[in-house]
Amino acid sequence: MRERRPEDVAGCVAALRAVHDADRYPTEWPADPAAWLDPEGLTAAWVAETDGEIVGHLCVATAPDAAVVADTGVPPERLAAIKRLFTTPAARGRGVAAALVAAAVARTAEGLWLDVVEGEPAVAFYERLGWRRIDTRPADWMAQDGRRRTVHVYVAPRPPEG
Q1: Which of 20, 61, 137, 159 has the CB geometry, 3.0–4.6 Å to 41, for a possible disulfide?
Q2: CB 53: neighbour CB atoms within 10 A?
Q3: What does the alpha-carbon distance between residue 148 and residue 138 come to, in Å, rounded to a whole number?
Q4: Which segments constitute the N-acetyltransferase domain (predicted)?
Q5: Is the CATH code 3.40.190.10 the one for domain 2-155?
């Protein structure tokens, strides 16, 4: 696992295509998948690779959110969200996603949060990692069928005090 470099983008798009074909993530295949990997406010991105092939990706972007501010007390300008986390089907069950999340948590001082579509396997994954659900609400995007999905908002585990 390492920080993403510009030359990794093609491998990230190939891995994303494998994930989309297997799991329909993202729900809609982006018109420009390379641009989709760079959400607004991007501050950092990591990849996981095996034998020179990209098998996982995660990025962090600045993202103020009222529920996260209310729960954590972190000012909006200090909030960041995990975005674009995926691992290829072949890499699953090997701790790749957990390692990517751990990298983001270790390098983000405070106010790290994310949202997950209700009913997705990722809900159980984040809860196993100790993330805490603070809100459930309609997504801020529409699915291809014209419906708004429900998402759960989670905040990173708080570090032990002391």
Answers
A1: 61
A2: 13
A3: 6
A4: 1-147
A5: no
Residue located via tokens 């295509």: 17
DSSP string, the chain: -EE--GGGHHHHHHHHHHHHHHH--SSS--SSHHHHTS-TTEEEEEEEEETTEEEEEEEEEE---HHHHHHH---GGG-EEEEEEEE-GGGTTTTHHHHHHHHHHHH--S-EEEEEETT-THHHHHHHTT-EEEEEEEEEEE-TTSPEEEEEEEEPPPPPP-
Nearest Cα neighbor of 15 from 36, 43, 42 is 36
Of the chain, the percentage scoring pLDDT greater than 90 comes to 80
What per-residue confidence (pLDDT) applies to 161? 57
**Domain range list for the chain:** 2-155
Question: Tokens standing for 9?
Answer: 């983008």
Instruction: Answer whether 15's CB lies under 8 Å from 22's CB.
Output: no
Q: Is 4 a residue whose pLDDT tops 70?
A: yes
Tokens at residue 106, please?
């270790």
pLDDT digits (tens, 9 = 90+) for 65-106: 999 999 999 999 989 999 999 999 999 999 999 999 999 999
